[in-house]
Amino acid sequence: MQKPVEKEWDLTIGPDTVRLLALKARAISAALSDDYVDGQEHEIEIDGDAGDRHQHDGLAEEEEENLTEEEFRELIADLNVDEAAELIAIAWIGRGDYEPAEWADAVGEARQHNGKRVATYLLGMPMLGDWLDAGLDALTVA
Q1: Which sign, positive or negative, has the C-alpha torsion 39, 42, 48, 49?
Q2: What 3 state SS string does the chain have?
Q3: Is the backbone of residue 14 left (phi > 0), alpha (psi -120 to 50) or beta?
Q4: How far apart are the C-alpha atoms of 84 and 74, rounded to whole Å?
Q5: Where is the composition biased (Basic and acidic residues) (predicted)?
Q6: Radius of gyration (C-alpha) of the chain in whole angstroms
């Protein structure tokens, strides 16, 4: 009988928290870009007299995006130093920068990030939601 391989990591951050942050990251990246101008080239005008009579409130979309990002930032701010470092390491593993076997190295490197800039750093990753899920999967399967 083969002895099961013991994992070299124990997550301080809960997997549900990582999944929630992945969902929030996807919502933020799926939101309208900042250069979108309501009523400009993005809308179709049928003729000179016919316009879009639909009363569209672009502010509602903007508020939703800001709330999602604000919630993401608040969740990150609530993490302790170990959880924040692990979250960054999970993203790096999901992105392929590290292998699950390199968990300690990834967390050690992630600890060097300034605690106040963790959310900004993570939000700068274009596929953060996917990378968090992939990293979490790699750690829980490995």
Answers
A1: negative
A2: CCCCCCCCCCCCCCHHHHHHHHHHHHHHHHCCCCCCCCCCCCCCCCCCCCCCCCCCCHHHHHHHHHHHHHHHHHHHHCCCHHHHHHHHHHHHHHHCCCCHHHHHHHHHHHCCCCHHHHHHHHHCCCCHHHHHHHHHHHHHHC
A3: beta
A4: 12
A5: 48-59
A6: 20
